[in-house]
Amino acid sequence: MDGDPAVESELDSFSLTFPLPYRVACIVVLAVWGWGFNLHYLYFLKIDVPALIRYPGRTSPHQPPHHRSVYRLAIVLSSIFSFSLFVFWIFTRRNPGLVLAWDWLPLLYLAVLLALFVLPFPRTTGLPHAGRARLRGIFRRIALGGIAEAKDGKFGDILLADVLTSYAKVLGDLYVAGCMFLRTGGSATARPDRGCGGTLFVPLILAVPSMIRLRQCLIEYGRVRRAPMREATGWGGQHLANALKYSTAFPVILLSALQRNWAPDSTAIYRLWVAACTLNSLYSFYWDVAKDWDLTLFDGARARNNPEHPLGLRRTLRLGPPTLYYGVVALDLVLRCTWSLKLSPHLDHIADFESSIFIVELLEVLRRWIWIFFRVETEWIRNNSAPLVGLGINDIMLGDYQGSRYEDED
Predict the structure, then answer these.
(1) Which pTM does this prediction carry?
(2) DSSP string, 128-156
(3) Would you place residue 296 in the very low, low, confident or very high pLDDT band (cuts 50, 70, 90)?
(4) Is 43:145 a contact under the CB 8 Å cutoff?
(5) Judging by beta carbons within 10 Å of its beta carbon (0-12, 13-18, 19+), is residue 35 exposed, middle or buried?
C-alpha cells in the first residue's frame, strides 16, 4: 500500500519500486508503442495515415511500412528503459536511502530518452530519421499554438496537440521530478512534491496543452472568417465551440490548485470543482462522439434512427462491428469521468495514492490511444467520401463538412 507508515514520511511504497521519473519514462515509451499499434492496425485496414498527416509515403514496395520504423524506435527505448530499471532495482533493493541516492539513474534515462527524440542521429544508427525530424518540426510549430495549413499537414498538428492534452499530468510530473532533483537536499526519487517550485508552476504546466489547442482553434476560426464563405465550412462557429471546450479545462485546473494549496476544506470550492469537472467531462465526451468521430448518437431522432446505419452510429464503420463502437463510446465516458472517484468517501483517500495517480494517468493515455483510431478513421472517411471528390486531403477538418457525411465506401 502507498500509505505504509514505515516509509510514509520519506517515500511511499510504490515509489520505492517505481519512482516518479521512471513512471514518466514508462508512459512515454508506451506512447511510442501505442502509435506503432495505431499505424499498424490502420495500415491493415487500408487507411493511409501518412497521407492524412501529409507525411511522405513509401516510394518502393520493398521499403518497410511506417509502423515498423516506430516499432524499431520503441524496441530501442524499451530495451534501455528495462536495463536502467533493472540496474536501479539491483542497487537500491527498496532501501529508502539508496532509492533517494540513486535518483540520477532514472534522470539519466530521461535525458537519453530526450536525446533519442531531439538529436539528429545518423541513419546508420538504425533509428527512424525522417519520422523523428517530422516530430520535432511539429513540436516546434505547435509549441506556441501554431497550426499548419491543410496542405502542409494540419491534421498531424491537431492529433499531436490533442495527445498532449492527455499527457498534461505526465508533463507536470516531469517538472516535479526535475524540481525535486534541483532543490537543495532534494531527490527526484523522493515522495513526489507536486507543490515543488511554488503553487503556480504545476497548474500552469497542466494548462499549457489546452492553451495550445485553444489557440489552434482560434487560428482556424480566423482562417475561415478570412476565406470566402463556403457551405462546407460555414462561418467557423464550430471552431469557436471547440475552443470553448478546451477552455473548460482551466476552471478545473484552477479549482484543483485552490483545493490543494489554499482552501482544502472549503465546501464552496469543492462544489465548484465538481461542477467544473462535470462540465469539462461531458462537453469533451459529446465532442468526441459527435464531432471527432462523426457519430449520430447526439443528433436529432431522424439522423440517429436512420435505417441506413446502426442506431446512433454512421454508415461507414471501418474499425469493426457496431458493438465495438458502442463499447468504445461507453468506455470513453467512463474514462472521461475518472475524477469522480474523489466523490466517494470510501475511495477518496485511495485516489491520492501515488499508485492510483499513475493508474489514472495510464487510463487517460489508454483513452487517447483508442480515440486516435476512431479520429483517424473519421478523417479518412471525410476525405474519401463521394461528396468530397475533387478536394484535397485535409481540406475539411474537425467536422467542417456539414453536408451528407455518411456515404458508402467504393
Answers:
(1) 0.87
(2) -SHHHHHHHHHHHHHTTT----GGGTHHH
(3) very high
(4) no
(5) buried
